[in-house]
């Protein structure tokens, strides 16, 4: 549910103001259902809950649609913006693959140095988990599931992949790949000063 909550808040924040269908439209166009458990029902359920918790605020749109009444649009409250940032920071450190995927989708909405620090924290944690899993005893004929070589091997392999993928992402960010929110602000400032790159 945290990944869906992060995705919904992130879409609304990116758009500034939007209705539920706009959130659904963005997540569908991103094929978010292939890398998270987000579904149409979970989007609208999350929006209802976020509104009830004061994270998003409904605003009645004056624009009428071709069929039916005008739509209710939503924008983030200050509490919603704080919640988005908290969830994003948590996602970038998470062991949960879907939550991490949602975090990567919005990582550029944080400063680069902060994303690198969060991913370095994640790297340390997954390295420790991978090392621990390699110490677990296994049995050819396991006396209980925790000693099943296939089960331990599955998790050890997943953690080894998590280590390698996190290292690759960190290398990309450290080499200057992508444009983060602090850098976009700097670029805008350069444009206004008339000193942007040609």
Automatic annotation (TrEMBL):
A Pfam family that the UniProt record links to this protein: PadR
Family annotation (Gene3D superfamilies): Winged helix-like DNA-binding domain superfamily/Winged helix DNA-binding domain
Matching InterPro entries: Metal_resp_DNA-bind_regulator (IPR052509), Tscrpt_reg_PadR_N (IPR005149), WH-like_DNA-bd_sf (IPR036388), WH_DNA-bd_sf (IPR036390)
Domain Transcription regulator PadR N-terminal: 9-85
Domain of life of the organism encoding this protein: Bacteria
Coiled coil: none
Protein name: PadR family transcriptional regulator
């Amino acid at each position: 549910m945290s990944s869906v909550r992060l995705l919904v808040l992130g879409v609304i924040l990116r758009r500034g103001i939007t209705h539920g269908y706009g959130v659904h439209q963005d997540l569908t166009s991103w094929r978010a259902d292939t890398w998270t458990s987000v579904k149409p029902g979970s989007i609208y359920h999350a929006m209802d809950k976020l509104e009830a918790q004061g994270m998003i605020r409904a605003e009645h749109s004056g624009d009428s649609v071709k069929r039916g009444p005008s739509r209710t649009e939503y924008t983030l409250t200050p509490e919603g913006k704080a919640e988005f940032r908290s969830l994003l920071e948590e996602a970038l450190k998470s062991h949960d693959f879907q939550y991490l995927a949602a975090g990567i989708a919005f990582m550029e909405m944080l400063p680069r140095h902060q994303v690198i620090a969060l991913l370095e924290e994640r790297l340390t944690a997954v390295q420790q988990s991978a090392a621990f899993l390699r110490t677990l005893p296994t049995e050819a004929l396991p006396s209980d599931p925790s000693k099943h070589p296939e089960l331990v091997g599955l998790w050890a392999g997943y953690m080894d992949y998590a280590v390698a993928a996190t290292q690759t992402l960190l290398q990309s960010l450290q080499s200057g790949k992508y444009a983060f929110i602090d850098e976009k602000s700097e670029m805008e400032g350069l444009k206004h000063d008339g000193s942007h790159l040609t």
